[in-house]
Amino acid sequence: MSALGHLRIAAGIHGRDVPQLRARVPHLTGSFGTVFDLFVMGRTADQRVSLDDLASQVEHIADGVRARCSILPLEPQRRTTAFIACDRLDAQGIETVCWPDDSSYHLARAIPPGRRTTWLDLGCGSAVAQILRPQLADVLIASDLNPRALEYARLGAALSGIHHLQTLTGDLESVHADLITCNAPIPGSAGPLWTATDARFMTRLFGVADRALAADGMIVVHAALDAIPTSLGGECVVVAYTPPGTAREFAVVWWRPDGEARQIRARRALDLARPHLDHTDREAALAGTLSPL
């Protein structure tokens, strides 16, 4: 069994899927404890460890080897493994590509099912949503202004056996996608690029997304509720929630600029059975079965 296969077992994934992973990284070796300690816990391992395909992701230090990044198994939503690569938990700096949090799952689960031609994820980070749900489009375009994030997106896609993910930085003028997503940073917050921005970011975001959206496409954004513009035309569905232990409210926005002109704003309480928003909350909001904001 491969070392990353052990990580997969640790994530509660059934061992029968390990051969699929072995086929993608056939020379990867190392014990479960070693790989888990290196890439999840960030601990130092013995210099004698052999990691082969991930050798470039470790560095030699005085008392052993240390992972340069984290490699994390994600909760699976398909038959094969999902892994993301990101910075270590103890990494610092404005360009840090952080571990996924609940907002990553809110966004990924909020996307309605169905196959699209092109999915553009703006500010993709380590491309969590696209690695979790690669079956949603023929072409996945992971876009970010941070080249470090795109390096991790490519690594995570490779480890997950995803071959239709492309990365893009900068100009979006030539991109036309029928699905556009973003896990938006929070205006007024301090921290790495992916967590904080200025007050006008959301207006710019929806403007860029609208220009890149193909006819009859959909834009799905996770954001702070108080940062979401109230002037979006077409069909705009907003479902808000309050994370446990916090006062600030967040929401998912489903926007169809070419859709029927209607503005629907609702709220759903999170619970243990459904700790994240998903695409059925949009359907419930449209049906009027959620509490209005």
Main attributes?
293 residues; alpha/beta; Rossmann fold; 2 domains; 9-stranded mixed β-sheet; two-stranded antiparallel ribbon; disordered N terminus
What do these coordinates show?
This protein is of the alpha/beta class and 293 residues long. The protein has two domains: 66 residues, no CATH class; 191 residues, 3-Layer(aba) Sandwich (Rossmann fold), CATH 3.40.50. It is 25% helix and 27% strand. The strands form four sheets. Strands 7-6-5-8-11-13-12-14-15 form a nine-stranded mixed sheet. Strands 1-2 form a two-stranded antiparallel sheet. Strand 6, helix 6 and strand 7 form a beta-alpha-beta unit. Helix 1 packs antiparallel against helix 2 and helix 1 packs across helix 3. The longest helix is centred in the middle third of the chain and has 13 residues. The protein is globular, with a radius of gyration of 20 Å.
